[in-house]
Write a structure and sequence with these properties.
By secondary structure, this protein is α/β, with parallel strands linked by helices. It contains nine helices and eleven strands. An eleven-stranded mixed beta sheet has the order 3-4-1-2-6-5-7-8-9-10-11, with helices on both faces. It is globular, with a radius of gyration of 20 Å. About 2% of the residues have low confidence.
């Protein structure tokens, strides 16, 4: 064992399983490389410049993305940079996150094409905010792209216009990156490694708002709201019913405030939902109720009892433990251990994506809702905490305590 592995045993790097983690939380066997790429989305609304004659001027919108891919081991281990504070508050402070991927490693020439996972962070956030999930999925053979949404990251968060930018650009950024996959598969270091038409989309909070729009959920009429001036920018092309390359969507506590539940009928792909029952940011009951309107989708809903909004992000760094509560609570939850949440998310997300994007029926059984003794076959439409049910596949005894799993078949 080399010195780096001795210094970083399993369970010490974000994305590692803790003792007692569910079965699919474990990392896979794929050697992972990681690179940062820069993309340019031409002709987009320059929101930060403000409206001019009722319309935003256009600009070439820059986007950064972190990309994890099958690689050959060698070089330097990845060290990711994320930030405490925010640019608009003038308290930005970088910190380092060690990873298990190899920075700028040579792609594995024998890997062949892989399903793609696109990750979209919260508001604000960063392309590193869900590195726990990104590295974990990449180690299982997925190519993972995590978008840094301009105007909405900690390092460039805009004092004015950031929300308008998110409303307009969040889904458009996702669509653009997904639309770039065929090109990326035809040239450069990702050549031949992608399945551009077999994509899983992961969105957290505002990223979940964008993901729902990307897969076909319609907007509320902005007239009579503070965003009436954005109506032209928020309008969808006639006949838009979602990006067809996206075959599965994972929605962590999605922001729904601007979405119309009665316009969710176009979503016909499987969806996996996560939310804490004490979420007071996007409101648990609203998310749970909204998921029931996506009736043409096979849905799995994971509820974390008494958890707040932070269901998907990395655990708080050591640096945040010496900062203010306002900074610390960006990552932490008052009840749940964030690393345990990461393990649970990796387990359920792996089962979901493997079953949908790879057709792995064995993986899909981890999403079967356990039926307690004495209950009928209609159990998937009932709710009961895990400790009241029989043991769940892949979990240690009582390992799913505090988790509620529901499954709603499409109609």
């Amino acid at each position: 064992m080399d010195e780096w592995l001795k210094a970083h045993p399993m369970g010490t790097i974000l994305g590692d399983p803790l003792p007692g983690a569910p079965a699919l939380a474990a990392r896979g066997d794929t050697v992972v490389g990681v690179r940062t790429i820069r993309l340019t989305h031409p002709g987009q609304a320059d929101v930060l410049s403000g409206l001019r004659d009722g319309r935003y001027p256009r600009y070439d919108r820059p986007l950064a993305a972190e990309v994890w891919y099958p690689a050959l081991a060698g070089g330097e281990r990845a060290v990711y940079t994320d930030y405490l504070g925010r640019a608009d508050l003038n308290n930005l402070s970088p910190y380092a996150i060690p990873g298990r991927a190899w920075r700028d490693a040579r792609p594995d020439p024998q890997a062949g094409p892989r399903p793609v996972v696109v990750i979209s962070h919260g508001y604000p956030g960063s392309r590193i905010l869900l590195v726990n999930l990104a590295e974990n999925l990449a180690s299982k053979g997925y190519v993972v792209l995590s978008i840094g949404h301009t105007d909405n990251t900690y390092e460039d968060f805009a004092a004015r216009g950031s929300l308008e930018s998110a409303l307009i650009h969040r889904s458009l950024d996702q669509r653009f990156v997904i639309g770039e996959l065929p090109r990326l598969n035809g040239e450069g270091f990702l050549k031949g490694l992608l399945m551009p038409e077999n994509v899983g989309l992961v969105g957290f909070s505002m990223g979940g708002y964008g993901a729902l729009r990307t897969i076909g959920v319609g907007m509320k009429d902005p007239e009579g709201t503070p965003f009436a001036a954005l109506a032209e920018e928020l309008a969808e092309p006639e006949g838009y019913a979602g990006v067809k390359a996206v075959k599965a969507a994972v929605l962590f506590a999605p922001a729904l405030f601007w979405l119309e539940k009665t316009r969710a009928e176009d979503v016909d792909i499987p969806t996996l939902w996560f939310c804490g029952t004490s979420d007071r940011t996007v409101f648990y009951q609203e998310v749970h109720r909204f998921s029931r309107f996506v009736q043409r989708s096979d849905r799995v809903f994971v509820s974390y009892e008494r958890c707040g909004h932070n269901v998907a992000n990395n655990p708080a760094p050591v640096e945040a433990q010496a900062a203010s509560c306002e900074i610390y609570k960006r990552w932490a939850d008052p009840v749940w251990d964030t690393w345990k949440l990461n393990n649970l998310n990796a387990h359920f997300t792996t089962a979901f994506l493997d079953s949908v994007l790879r057709g792995d029926e064995e993986a899909g059984r981890y999403l079967d809702v356990p039926v307690p003794e004495g209950h009928s076959a209609t159990w998937p439409n009932q709710r009961l905490p895990a400790e009241a049910a029989k043991p769940w596949p892949g979990f240690a005894d009582n390992g799913a305590a505090g988790v509620i799993l529901e499954r709603f078949p499409k109609k």
